[in-house]
Amino acid sequence: MLALVYDSLTGNVRRFAQQVAGEAGAKAPLSARLDAPEGPFLLLTYTFGTGDVPGSTRAFLDRHGPLLRGVVASGSYHWGVNFARAADVIAAEYGVPVVARINKGGTAADRAQVVAWLRARPIEAPSSPSSSLPVARRHPWNPGSN
């Protein structure tokens, strides 16, 4: 099963990642601010401000982006079109799927969706050390005109 890596500001994403790990029978999730994944991972992060990817998440992805396989982002519904937008930005930049967009700490249905996605993924062989070198983002996100 993929490693889970989270970046959390308020604790909502950390708790969600811990609950997903428990329900999926996965190892304890890693902190994007403190840990480094040894292989492919699912990123769980939050959306900052009006739809931005947090700086700590960007710094983590600059170092470990090639190992990214999917993204989950939290947000708040009151941000409208910018709800959990970090997921869309990261998915576009790294060519990975948006696994879920969750409101604040998520729900049981959100956890079930992420667990099902994790269980459906084939097991990948560990990557070689050279595969964790930083690479340029694949698809820069452009919001276009409004």
Distance between the termini: 40 Å
Helix content: 25-40%
CATH level 1 class label = Alpha Beta
Which percent range describes the beta-strand content?
A: 15-25%
Shape verdict: globular
The averaged pLDDT comes out at 87
Number of domains: 1
Total beta strand runs: 5
Radius of gyration: 14 Å
Structural category:
alpha/beta
CATH hierarchy: architecture: 3-Layer(aba) Sandwich
Task: Going across the biggest sheet, name each strand in turn.
Answer: 2-1-3-4-5
Q: Major sheet, described briefly?
A: 5 strands, parallel
Which residues form runs of ≥5 with pLDDT under 50? 129-142
Order of helical and strand elements: EHEEHEHEH
Helix tally equals 4
**CATH H-level superfamily title:** Flavodoxin domain
Task: Give the CATH topology.
Answer: Rossmann fold
In words, what does this structure look like?
By secondary structure, the chain is an alpha/beta fold. The protein has a single domain, classed as Rossmann fold, CATH 3.40.50. The protein has four helices and five strands. It has helices spanning 12-24, 55-64, 85-94, 108-120, and strands at residues 3-6, 30-31, 41-46, 68-75, 98-103. A five-stranded parallel beta sheet has the order 2-1-3-4-5, with helices on both faces. Helix 1 (12-24) links the parallel strand 1 (3-6) and strand 2 (30-31). Helix 1 packs across helix 4. The radius of gyration is 14 Å and the shape is globular. The N and C termini lie far apart (40 Å). Residues 129-142 have low confidence and may be disordered.
Notable characteristics:
146 residues; alpha/beta; Rossmann fold; five-stranded parallel sheet; 4 helices; 5 strands; 32% helix; 18% strand
